[in-house]
Every structure is written in C-alpha cells, then in structure tokens.
Write a structure and sequence with these properties.
The chain is 33% helix and 21% strand. The structure holds guanosine-5'-diphosphate and magnesium ion (MG). Guanosine-5'-diphosphate binds next to α2.
Length: 217
C-alpha cells in the first residue's frame, strides 16, 4: 500500500520529478496494431517538428539522451513510449508540420497520431510544445481545438524561452493566453536553462497522481 499524500490538494513537483526520473524507453511504434495495452495513465507530448519535444522530455525526466534530439526537423516518425512505472507512460508523438516526406507517408503519420489521440483510453493529458518565437501555427491550433472537443486536458508549453529576454517571453505568453480557452494550461519553458520546470512537473503531477497506488483493471 502506498501511504496517503501529506497534502492531497496541492500538486507536488517533487513526486512527479521522482516518477519521471524512472522513465525508460519501451517501444517505438509506427502502426496502431503495435500499441502497448491501453491501460493506466498516459500523457502525450505533441508539437511541430523541431519545436523542442524531445529536449523537453529529456529535461523533464532528467536524462540527457532518453528521447533523441535532432537539429534536422522531422526525424521522429513514430510514437515513442516511455514507461515510468507499470501504470504510467509518457509518449513522444511524431512531429507534425514540415516533415520532409511524401504525401502518402505524411497521411499515414497523421492517421496514426489522430487515431491514437482519438481512441486511447489511457490518454489523460496532452502537452503541446511550441517554439515561443512561433506559437499557434495552423497545425497547433487544429490540434488544440480538436483536443478541446475531445475534452482532453491540455497544457501548452512555449519552449526555447532562453532565446528571448524575460520581458519578451512574458509578452509572448500573454499574447497566447489571450487566444486560448482559460482552462488550458500555459507556460514558458526552456529545456536549456530549466526555466518553468516546476510548473511543468506540477502539471504532470496532476495527471499522474504519483501518490496513488494504481492497479490494473
Ligand atoms: N535554445 C534552446 N534550444 C532548444 C530548446 N529545446 C530544443 N532546442 C533545440 O531545438 C532543436 C530541436 O529540438 P528537439 O527536441 O529535437 O525537437 P523535436 O523535433 O520537437 O523533438 C534542437 O537543436 C535542440 O537543441 C530550448 O529550450 N532552448
Ligand atoms: Mg523529437
């Protein structure tokens, strides 16, 4: 039995940090038939190619090369699953946007992501990663609106904040805040400097409920 949390109402970045540090790679899949069993709690990280998803995952899990990072856009072409414990997973989604591939392959990837986001019961949260200098591109807006219709809990992360001054990144956050639903989480982040890490961990704490002893159905 897991002991009850000391303060159940507040989220604890420390508990989520401990859980996420346990992350280990389990599988990369390119077809729905390869998906691991649909149980427990999953949180997916989505965003345009090169937005900074893999870097965010590495910083979040405090592991330098857990998710591969790349200077060449569009290299992640699969759903990459990481296991935190037997009931909790993290998923690195293939980047949408300007992937340098043929139309057919692009449609295949979109179908794969869409099918996963649409049908996955375990999916509890979606992190949408955007470059703070280029937020809310058409594909981002489509994803956010669509996830909103599905009722999926979303947290928008404006990353690479280290590329801007504090006043610039605060202005960028305000601008995005004015364009999204008030219930959607939003923050600035930097995988390079660690800015915003506690706020991000708190979001994961709410999704994963690390103090809860989950059992398979
Ligand atoms: N300065 C800075 N560069 C970043 C940050 N996050 C990612 N990058 C860089 O952006 C590029 C794409 O990052 P990656 O994590 O591979 O993006 P992904 O395609 O969304 O997984 C890489 O060259 C990273 O080093 C950040 O917070 N700050
Ligand atoms: Mg990546």
């Amino acid at each position: 039995m897991t002991p009850p949390p000391s303060s159940p109402s507040s989220s604890s970045p420390a508990a989520a940090a401990k859980l996420l540090r346990q992350a280990r790679y389990i599988d990369s899949i390119h077809h729905p038939s390869q998906l691991p069993p649909d149980g427990g709690i999953e949180v997916a990280v989505a965003g345009r190619s090169n937005a900074g998803k893999s870097s965010l995952i590495n910083r979040l899990c405090d592991q330098k090369s857990l998710a591969r990072t790349s200077k060449t856009p569009g290299r992640t072409r699969q759903l990459v699953f990481f296991e935190l414990d037997p009931m909790r997973k993290l998923v690195d989604l293939p980047g949408y946007g300007y992937a340098k591939v043929s139309g057919d392959l692009k449609a295949h990837w979109q179908g794969l992501i869409q099918g996963y986001l649409d049908q996955r019961q375990a999916l509890q949260g979606l992190v949408v990663v955007m470059d703070i200098r280029h937020p809310l591109k058409d594909t981002d807006i489509q994803l956010i609106e669509w996830a909103g219709q599905r009722g999926l809990s979303q947290h928008l992360v404006l990353t690479k904040a280290d590329k801007l001054s504090r006043s610039q990144w605060m202005r960028a956050v305000d601008k995005v805040r004015g364009k999204i639903h008030p219930q959607v989480g939003l923050q600035a982040f930097s995988a390079t400097s660690g800015l915003g890490i506690d706020e991000l961990l708190a979001a994961f704490d709410r999704w994963y409920q690390p103090h809860m002893n989950l059992t398979a159905p």
